[in-house]
Each structure stands twice: as C-alpha cells, then as structure tokens.
Amino acid sequence: MARETHPSVWVVVPAAGRGVRAGSGVPKQYRLLLGRPVIEHTLRTLATHPQVRGVAVVLAADDDRWPGWDMLEGKPVLAVTGGAERADSVLAGLNALPQDLEDDAFVLVHDAARPCVSHRDIDALLDAASPRGAVLAVPLADTLKRADDDNLVRDTVPRDGLWRALTPQMFQRAALMRALRDARDAGVVVTDESMAMERAGIAPVLVAGSADNLKITTPRDFALAEFLLRAANKDSA
Ligand code: CTP
Ligand code: MG
Description:
This protein has helices spanning 38-47, 86-95, 119-127, 173-185, 193-199, 221-236, and strands at 9-15, 32-33, 36-37, 52-59, 71-72, 75-81, 106-109, 134-139, 144-147, 153-157, 163-172, 205-208.
C-alpha cells in the first residue's frame, strides 16, 4: 500500500559481479528462478513498489546478457557500467542518477542477487527515513564461535547486539557519494553502504527485515530462493 509520508526514491542495483562463489558459467544474476533471470525478479519487485521512481542497474563491462530494458513496470531503468569492487559499482550507479536529483534525496542500494526482497521490507526501510540512513538487517540466531587456523573453537562470541546487514540500504544521495568516494580515496574497500557512512562518523539505524531476503551466494541458494519466490507468489495470489 502506498503511504504518502514515504519519500519516493531511486534505487541503485549493483549487478556487475562475477558470482564466483555461486559457480557455473553463467553469472548468478542471470541464472533462472521460476523461468526468469534472478535480476528480473529483483528489478520487477523494486519497480512495482509505489515509492520507487526508477532504477539504475550497474552491469559488468563485458555483460552480453542484459536484455536492454530502459523501462520496467512503467518506471525508467538506467544501465551503467560498474567497477572492480561492489562499492565502485554502487558509485557508478549513483553517478548515473538524474542530474536534477536533490542532494538530500533518499536513494536505496539493493543487490541484484537478492531477488526475494518484499515490498513489506522496503516499506519498513522507508518508514525509517532519516539523515543518518537506514539498513535492513536480521539479528543473529546461531551461537557464534571464533576458530583458530585448525578450526578448533577458541571461544564463543556473545551474540548480543550482532546483526546481519542486508539490502536495501537507504541514504541521502550526496552524503552517500561523499562517504563512498572518501573510502575509495583512503584505499578502504567497504562491503556495504553503511560501512562507508560509519567511516564518516554516522550511525545508521538497523531496521529488522525478513531473513527471506537472502543474497544468492552459493549453489544451494538457488533452490532456496526459488522456494521463497514461489511461496511469495502464492501469498500475493
Ligand atoms: N557487484 C557489483 N560489482 C562488483 C562486485 C559485486 O555490482 N564489482 C554486485 C553483485 O553483482 C551482487 C552484489 O554486488 O549483485 C553483491 O555482491 P556479491 O554477492 O559478492 O556478488 P559477486 O561479487 O558477483 O559474487 P562473488 O563474490 O561470489 O564473486
Ligand atoms: Mg563479491
């Protein structure tokens, strides 16, 4: 349901990775789930959200699988070339957003490899819009062990206050670009947007999201994602 109080946002979708851990010849964002590429599920779910204005998808320089969409579900799709690290790709996507987008406009960054994101997750994130930014996350469930080089348990790490950070993550456009550039210039590889903002002294808020919003990473994740998508389709039918 559209909520008028929500900001409307552009979404940057990094999809320029090689998917090494997922194996197979085809990069994971182009493997099929229920007959459609992973990236198509991701982009359609984003584009059908009422508060999403458009999507900037970031592709590898040698990507010859991109279907060339410039519109999906009635929303503009911009395609740009990414870089060596995920953060380079995100910066390229942010650079490609419309020139007239305000400095303080909220933007989302969402991994192409997370096709099971739901509108409910996006709503929860948008509800938390503030200058400090917001990150979908899930509290850790398992007991954590720190191991030595021989996989022998050294100790148990207290779980209190530990979360797994997911995407989308939401920040104001100019502040995020500044933080990502500063990290890059300092030679620090940030693995998510929050990490770049944290370096800048900002404490983004964690928003509890669904653990179903998994990042397809290893071969077994494809069957799991397909199961979750099928269940989600049933729910909305
Ligand atoms: N990504 C990107 N540019 C890069 C690296 C990653 O746009 N240089 C994207 C991936 O396409 C993916 C998301 O960032 O949608 C999350 O990265 P990850 O899950 O690590 O994907 P890959 O880097 O492709 O996988 P792997 O690390 O196993 O090679
Ligand atoms: Mg990677």
